[in-house]
């Protein structure tokens, strides 16, 4: 996305960028799903269409106003930080209609076959002391801040090309994980709320963070692949590209995030493996497909193939 300096703009000023196009396309695809399953969704369909339309309006408005004031430009550049969480929380009812079967038995069996006892030992590290559980919840929640923090570093350095690559790759990775939720709806080895104290443990701090996670993550069938693992590793890759110091700061945070996914019973081990593979694929694919989604390139492609020029 555009950084705090001008980014190879044409004479009339380029407001829409590749991440906007990808976000808009994803919203339209979800709107098509809602329209197709409108009878199964019932009254919820109208609410979902309203949310999706509001997100499109937000993207369009923030991009249109991005040249008028620096605050609008910053809002536009970081708009995926708003769009993606809201979109994520619309997925639950749509997934239930599109893919009603759940894959938990399959992935639990794969854990037993390829990682026998690993998950059990992982979840019982050091005998599950309350302090480790609380720290694990803190790490799990820090996942929401890692891509934003990395984006702020690049933004303040006035490296717009690197910032755009990061944002587009992060958005692409999120949507690739969302596609996985549709293809392989999986609850994961989650612990029922009334069994939390006995199985998960932790203190008041950890319990409060668990309530926060339950509130902000309304889509439950989101275990495969592990989005926490994919996004965290992708950001670590970009941190490594920035500097050794950035990598040294983010490496322990990313390690803690990945540890927390299984330790807190949110993911199977195979979810984490799939998330790592997804991170590698999107780190390679993102910069290569980003130009395809740049509006200028899209207009040029259609003009050439329509014989306009």
Can you give a write-up of this model?
The structure is a single chain. With 309 residues, this protein is mainly α. The chain has one domain (18-305). The protein is built from 17 helices and no strands. The chain has helices at residues 18-36, 38-41, 44-64, 70-77, 80-88, 91-98, 104-114, 118-123, 130-142, 146-156, 160-183, 196-199, 204-216, 227-242, 244-263, 269-293, 295-305. Helix 10 (146-156) runs parallel beside helix 14. Residues 1-13 have low confidence and may be disordered.
Keywords:
single chain, 309 residues, mainly alpha, 17 helices, 72% helix, disordered N terminus
Task: Write a compact overview of the structure shown.
The chain is built from 17 helices and no strands. The chain is mainly α and 309 residues long. It has one domain (18-305).
Computed CA radius of gyration, to the nearest angstrom: 20 Å
- pLDDT < 50 stretches: 1-13
Largest sheet, if any?
Answer: none
Give the assembly state of these chains: single chain
Shape: globular
Strand content: under 5%
Task: Please give the count of helices.
Answer: 17
Q: Bin the helical content.
A: over 70%
What is the end-to-end distance?
28 Å
Which structural class best describes the helix and strand composition?
mainly alpha
- Rounded mean pLDDT is 90
Instruction: Give the SSE order as H and E letters.
Output: HHHHHHHHHHHHHHHHH
Question: How many β-strand runs?
Answer: 0
Integer count of domains: 1
Secondary-structure blueprint of this entry?
Blueprint: H1 18-36, H2 38-41, H3 44-64, H4 70-77, H5 80-88, H6 91-98, H7 104-114, H8 118-123, H9 130-142, H10 146-156, H11 160-183, H12 196-199, H13 204-216, H14 227-242, H15 244-263, H16 269-293, H17 295-305
Helix pairs in contact: 1-3, 1-5, 1-11, 1-16, 9-13, 9-15, 10-11, 10-14, 11-14, 11-16, 14-15, 14-16
């Amino acid at each position: 996305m555009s950084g705090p300096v001008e980014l190879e703009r044409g004479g009339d000023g380029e407001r829409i960028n590749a991440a906007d196009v990808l976000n808009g396309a994803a919203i339209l695809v979800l709107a098509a799903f809602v329209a197709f399953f409108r009878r199964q969704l019932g009254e919820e369909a109208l609410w979902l269409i309203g949310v999706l339309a509001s997100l499109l309006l937000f993207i369009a408005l923030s991009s249109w106003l991005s040249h008028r004031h620096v605050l609008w430009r910053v809002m536009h550049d970081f708009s995926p930080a708003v769009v993606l969480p809201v979109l994520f929380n619309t997925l639950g009812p749509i997934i239930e209609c599109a893919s009603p079967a759940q894959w938990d038995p399959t992935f639990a069996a794969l854990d037993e076959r390829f990682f026998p006892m690993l998950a059990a030992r992982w979840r019982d590290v050091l005998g599950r002391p309350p302090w480790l559980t609380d720290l694990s919840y803190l790490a799990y929640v820090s996942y929401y801040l890692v891509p934003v923090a990395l984006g702020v570093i690049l933004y303040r350095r006035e490296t717009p090309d690197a910032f755009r690559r990061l944002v587009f790759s992060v958005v692409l990775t999120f949507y690739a994980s969302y596609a996985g939720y549709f293809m392989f709806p999986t609850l994961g080895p989650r612990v029922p709320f009334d069994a939390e104290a006995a199985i998960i443990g932790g203190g008041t701090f950890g319990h409060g963070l668990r309530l926060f996670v339950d509130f902000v993550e309304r889509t439950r069938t989101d275990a495969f692949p592990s989005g926490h693992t994919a996004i965290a590793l992708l950001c670590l890759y970009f941190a490594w590209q920035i500097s050794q110091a950035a990598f040294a700061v983010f490496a322990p945070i990313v390690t803690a995030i990945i540890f927390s996914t299984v330790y807190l019973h949110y993911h199977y081990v195979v979810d984490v493996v799939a998330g790592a593979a997804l991170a590698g694929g999107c780190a390679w694919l993102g910069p290569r497909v980003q130009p395809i989604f740049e509006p200028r390139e899209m207009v040029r492609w259609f003009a050439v193939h329509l014989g306009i020029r």
